[in-house]
Design goal:
The structure is a homodimer. By secondary structure, chain A is of the alpha/beta class. An 8-stranded mixed β-sheet of chain A has the order 1-2-4-3-5-6-7-8, sandwiched between helices. In chain A, α1 links the parallel β3 and β4. The radius of gyration of chain A is 17 Å and the shape is globular. Chains A and B meet through β8 and α11 of A and β8 and α11 of B. β8 of chain A pairs antiparallel with β8 of chain B.
Amino acid sequence: MSTQFETAPNRYVAARDGVKYAYRKLGVPGGTPLVLLQHFTGHMDSWDPAVVNGLARHRTVVIFDNAGIGVSSGRTPDSVEQMAIDAESFIGALELGEVDLLGFSLGGFVAQLMAARGKVPVRRMVSAGSAPQGGEEHLLQVVSAAFATNAQDVRLPLFFTPSEKSQAAGRAFLARATARTKDRDAESGEAIRNAQANAIIAWCADETAEHAVLKRIGQPTLIVHGSKDTMFPVTNAYSMFEQMSDATLIVYPDSAHGAIFQYSETFTSHVETFLSA
Amino acid sequence: MSTQFETAPNRYVAARDGVKYAYRKLGVPGGTPLVLLQHFTGHMDSWDPAVVNGLARHRTVVIFDNAGIGVSSGRTPDSVEQMAIDAESFIGALELGEVDLLGFSLGGFVAQLMAARGKVPVRRMVSAGSAPQGGEEHLLQVVSAAFATNAQDVRLPLFFTPSEKSQAAGRAFLARATARTKDRDAESGEAIRNAQANAIIAWCADETAEHAVLKRIGQPTLIVHGSKDTMFPVTNAYSMFEQMSDATLIVYPDSAHGAIFQYSETFTSHVETFLSA
């Protein structure tokens, strides 16, 4: 198995739902595989190589394009529930058995729902930069404000705080993120943006849910957040933590939505400590 | 240098304040030494051997009896400020130079003040189960309720939640805590209890402080807390985190004031990740 994000080949698996899912598998064979669930408009190459490689040092890591994303076939759903169904279909097709999940942002919504549904056996879950159903989101405002800055890359204002230190971490992240040159996923277009924005907004608008999803999750969970996340404020992490029966909470200083990229080494160490506890 | 808590010899150093401080030094030589600051009525043998040995795997760890505690000479002060002055005197006498601090509970108050005062150069600080000036404390109520349970050891109701899992972790902690048989410190008496209780209550009663101490701390800080700490509720950790410029927050599930003992392995891993970042 390739151990580097930069060179792991694209593989494909045909699932029973008719979708051909693209994925990459890397790291150390054996043990419970860790499946990563991606953020709004993100694809396989939106992951931070330092995070993926760091996680893959001690375990099998699977990244994939969910239905309708990147080089997977199918349609991009406009609901978190359908994204969870698609991810379950992918994991079933790969015959991974029991898995650990790491969901970032929108991927954290999907991870929560999958852990609660139990259609795929989930051993442990990491939810980073995420929000519960009925949580507080500022997606459209924050995304349009970030584009309006005309930054070199929209992820600098979107994922990092204005501080010099955070912006420097952002530039280091951008440099890492282009290290892979072969078989890169194309950027997501408007249809994906619109469908996923609808899914995010609907998830956070559901204030009648009373944390039913979180209360169904018995699996040990690691909640990670940035102190100054503007898209999903840190209060989301606090309320998830309070509603869950077996959650550990970690919040990083001077960090925004991309906290796990800003603190890539610390984050992968925290995930490893959590998954191997 | 001995690498085990169980066998590290008692050493003594005479400081300029006239106090003869007892200490034990263990772990790996070189690097920034980590000095541990103890909880209410605690002495050197109140530390969890799993925590001290875990921390000592990668660095020099110093535990000591502050003035008037255990086998150190001097008087137990009734103010956090004097405890900080005494600890500074001890560190100066040992000529440790720049140090990392790990303060638990009352020791966390002392660590905050030392980091803010800067009389001893503090590189990084870990504050566990602690509270800021003006914070919320339920010391006397919680201590008397714990004694009223007539538990086998008062630390079971005091440091652990009523859950089966937390109580089992508490019993494992108690078993570890007696592993050292030679040169054990005697338990603290009423004079120490009263003086330290006054110091804790005065620290938390100081609501005019407006977090002046926290705002003076520029050092990277790791704040660790138990989700169900009854003595110093977890809201203390949240408010410390919000007031500090460079703090990371970690909260453990189903845990009370002794969270760092309940999760000794995870905690030492988190401290190591933080100190070596």
